[in-house]
Amino acid sequence: MNKILIVSIFSILTFNVMAQEKIVQTAGRDQLGEFAPKFAELNDDVLFGEVWSRTDKLGLRDRSLVTITSLISMGITDNSLIYHLQSAKNNGITRTEIAEIITHIGFYAGWPKAWAAFNLAKSVWAEDSVGQDAKAAFQKEMIFPIGEPNTAYAKYFIGNSYLAPVSTEQVKISNVTFEPRCRNNWHIHKATKGGGQMLIGVAGRGWYQEEGKPAVEILPGTVIHIPANVKHWHGAAADSWFAHLAFEIPGKNASNEWLDPVSDEEYNKLK
């Protein structure tokens, strides 16, 4: 009889490459559509629709890093830099990382440019200083570490999540932490035989929901068994940080399909 192997969170080891997502941008047409329609077209359809959408060649996080470095080096600290700083944050660059990035840029691009960029970055990441305190307090509630930002799968989440390997030998397990309101997209663990996923609540309060069924509250010690081929999502409650252990049960022809985000309208119905 084969032993069941436990694999780390969200099919990291069994995840198949998903269809490339296309970036949708309308800023060019919104602001310059009538005055400079060709420029607007190139901005929206080529720069963002083609270049930024080549995520199979270079991820969004790395493209944000290259872009903000280029803008700061040229001394561009207007709304375009603010936009790209906000995008960098959304693409997983943390408050600590942006401070180190701009410090490094300062030695090569110039100290005044770094100062100007810091003034903008402080406002973009302002709420994170409060979030860091809450994150540190949550860490004290559980025995497993919060880990590092889940940047590799950030595009499949609303809000920030973190991954921490708990075991890498014999049984591979990761602890997953969600900030308040963070949740992953609807997704399906597909398999023709076996498969599925299992969650174990560690700390805080969260939710699990299968399509067409009421959401189930997850508290420390709650065990959730997720059958293969069932559309579902899971994440934190609106008023609580949340962490769970998660592992995927191997199955025949196993794959993971990421679907639409859980809308605010759906999420806000949960209490």
From TrEMBL:
Highest taxon of source: Bacteria
Signal peptide, first to last residue: 1-19
An MF annotation (GO) of this entry: peroxiredoxin activity
Domain annotation Carboxymuconolactone decarboxylase-like: ranges: 37-122
Parts forming coiled coils: none
Keywords of the record: Signal
PANTHER family: BLL4564 PROTEIN, RIBD C-TERMINAL DOMAIN CONTAINING PROTEIN
Identification of the protein by name: Gamma-carboxymuconolactone decarboxylase
Organism: Bacteroides stercoris
